[in-house]
Amino acid sequence: MKSSKMQFDANAAAAHDSGIFGLPFSVHESKLILIPVTWDATTSYGSGTSQGPQAILAASKQVDLYDRDLGNFFEAGIAMLDSPLQLQEWNDIARAEALQVISNENKININESLAIVNQYSEKLNDYVYHETKKWLQQDKLVGLVGGDHSTPFGAIKAFIEKHPHMSILHIDAHADLRHAYEGFEYSHASIMHNVISKTALKKLVQVGIRDFCEEEAKYIQHHSSRICTFFDSDLAEQKMIGKNWSTLCDEIIQPLGQEVYISFDIDGLDPRFCPHTGTPVPGGLDFNEVLYLFKKIVESKRKIIGFDLNEVSLGSMPRDGSFIDPASEWDANVAARLLYKLC
To answer: What average pLDDT does this structure show over 203-211?
Structure first.
């Protein structure tokens, strides 16, 4: 029994100086390491997701820890790393240059700005890759907390190196299969295009997709051996004609391999659960539908080997972590509870 665990009362209120979910564990005591990535340089609509990790950390201390299915699973240890100040500095530089590109309707004299954004995106990917690989080599479980959805590329690369036969379950409103969206090689809208084109991933299973362009639709068709997409409209129609969610979950799980990495954009949920996310889209999954899907994956004897959670934004939250608009805390509240279930 860990010394910190011996002094910890899971039924009490979280201590002010406690870690994620109010837990007392250090990274060395913990089985699961959460990597916060404060990055939203290429966001193309709403911004603020770089503050997602801090918002989730704050909201997580309101989560009750006992789980009806798994009991006190937190006792294995969960710890979130501190986010390096350097990441925020990189994000600020890249974001300023990205805005020059995004706001330039005629796309005149943007090459230098594009080069800077792409350069810092590569630096970010390198950091995330090496940080993920370091903890995987120590036999830790690893989850990433973004940030926009470009952030997990380096983590996914590290996971594929260790688990070459893994599949990705991608929950999102968007297909994220655009090639270098707006000229940004590592755009949040290009994460899965980069995974398919730059790694040896065997299978990508997408769920909840409901906002995509013709380029992405054709990309899915042309890569049907590696991409299986469950469009939100199809899932909704199946439910309307009487097919139950349990059966649909079986169909979603069937193409997945034995080792599953979950890449979760919060906007995959119905936007009532994440109204301040960068690009909300009507439709989407219910919170409990997602939890049931996770449960069915485990019951299928597949192993969830890692995950990322992205695109959580409060819109009006300043960088010191305090909340200006109490109503916007809802996004972080939902995300913290979803993160706990992913753990």
So the answer is: 99
Distance CA 120, CA 335 (A): 27
Distance CA 182, CA 286 (A): 31
Residue 157: partners with Cβ closer than 8 Å, 6 or more residues away: 125, 129, 198, 199
What is each CA distance from 307 to 4, 143, 298, 303, in whole angstroms? 26, 5, 14, 12
Tokens (6 digits) for 18: 């406690």
Strands 203-209 and 141-146: unpaired
183 DSSP assignment: G
Burial 193-219 (b: 16+ CB within 10 A, else e): bbbbeebebbbbbbbbbbbbeeebeeb
Helix (H, G, I), strand (E, B) or coil at 146: strand
Mutual angle of helices 329-342 and 287-299, in 10-degree steps:
10
Q: In 3-state terms, what secondary structure has residue 155? A: helix
Cβ-based neighbour number of residue 102 at 10 Å: 18
- The pLDDT tens digits for 217-241 are 999 999 999 999 999 999 999 999 9
CA-to-CA distance for 314 and 310, rounded, in angstroms? 13
Helix, strand, coil percent content, the chain, rounded in steps of 5:
45, 15, 40
7-35 pLDDT tens trace? 789 899 888 889 999 999 999 999 999 99
Which CATH code is given to the segment(s) 3-342? 3.40.800.10
Residue ranges of domains in the chain: 3-342
Q: Beta partners for 308?
A: 144, 263
> What tokens were used for 125?
């990917």
| DSSP 8-state symbol, 85 | H
Reference 35, options 87, 93, 90; nearest CA is 87
Show Cβ contacts of residue 16 under 8 Å, excluding neighbours closer than 6 positions: none
CB distance 184 to 42 below 8 Å: yes
SS3 for 234?
helix
Residue 16's pLDDT is 84
Asked if 260 and 297 count as a contact pair (C-beta separation under 8 A), the reply is yes
The owner of tokens 């192993």 is: 303
Distance separating alpha carbons of residues 53 and 59, to the nearest angstrom: 10
